[in-house]
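To: structure subgroup
Subject: Chain for Friday's discussion

All,

I'm putting the inputs and outputs inline so they're searchable in the archive.
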Amino acid sequence: MLAGCTAADSSQSHYQRGHALAQQSQSAEAMREYLLAVEADDDATYVAKALSQLGHLSMNHSDQQQALGYFEQAWQRAAQLGDVQLMVLAQRDLGRLWRMRQRPERALQYFARADSLLTAARADSLVQYVYPEYISLLMDAGRAGAARQLVRSLPVGRTSGPLCLVAGKFYAEQGQQDSATYYFRRCLETDNVSSRASAAMYLSELTADDDNWEQAYGYALECAALVDSAKLVMQQENASLVSSQTDQLTVERENSRLYRILAAIIIGVILTGAVLTIFVRERIARLKRHHEEERQASVSRARNRQEKLIEEFHNTQLYRQILMNESINAEQWQDLQQYLDSQTDGFTSKLTTFYPAIKPQELQVCQLLKLEFTNQQIAAIQCKTQQAITNLRKRLYQKIFGKEGSADDLNQFVRLFPQV
């Protein structure tokens, strides 16, 4: 009956309505529109796109088998159309799904097919949608040589923020700090703010490892500025500084009398060099102490807010329903996310901004950890074993921070995020 009432609508109009609903986190309504787009079947391109979106929504609801069916149908439609972009994205989505199902070798097969398609079509613009995850998957599988080959084959002029970031992380893990620094710096030149912020953070860590505290502090400041969307102000200040220095150099060249005082300047620099060095070191030490004090205060405030969040959440009907059923349906997931974001100033959006590559299931686990569900409760809700959830937490910590950590390390990070 429903399809009959909307038969006049096209696949395109249903798809567009579904896309708008999905952006508003109305998953059930979005799936309904996407299904109607497939049923209308008057535009093969939008049918393929709708099938792909149905697969993504199914993955969000942890229905991997249903997602697999939709992604395979999307691939078949894309192949019939001969649309390279849709074909590449369909293979990538299948690779993502098998990676989520803990089948890395199967996932690598699909990413390799996506790579072959875009290479054969010379579709360099699609590299940014495939290579970041492909390189990461190869690194996780211990295939550093293949990952290095992909990094080296990145097309000139097509290196996006995520691509530069994953290339920098690759070389950092290989201990090639010069190459890592090169890509992180290239990342800072891209338009992707979140990638630039991550690159600044990695550059700060690399320079700190070399005991270059002044440069490390500079990168840390740049990272903070990017997060606060204040880079434009910094660029204006830098432009003003460069302009003033250029004017000063011009005046010096035009006024020959200034050469007479060069000797005095050199002597002054020599005499004050030691004093300035001591002053800079003391200044850096004071700044480090100040930041540590601020960090400790921030941690204390975050813990207090976390305790209040949990106390209030435990008094909600939603919490009691989840404990009783040991499961969460789609509507309850939406209610849980809305409650969490309203109480934490946008936990979900800030986490996905901090780590854009996070997968739907990983995001759900983080949301449950934020609300301090136990590992046993999370395993029951996700229909997984407790060991599987523990392993997922360890892997997610390593992906986010680029280093090994325990499951409890992820718990501590999530519970204090985004305040710390």
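Points worth raising on Friday:
The chain has 22 helices and no strands.
The CA atoms of residues 7 and 40 lie 7 Å apart.

D.
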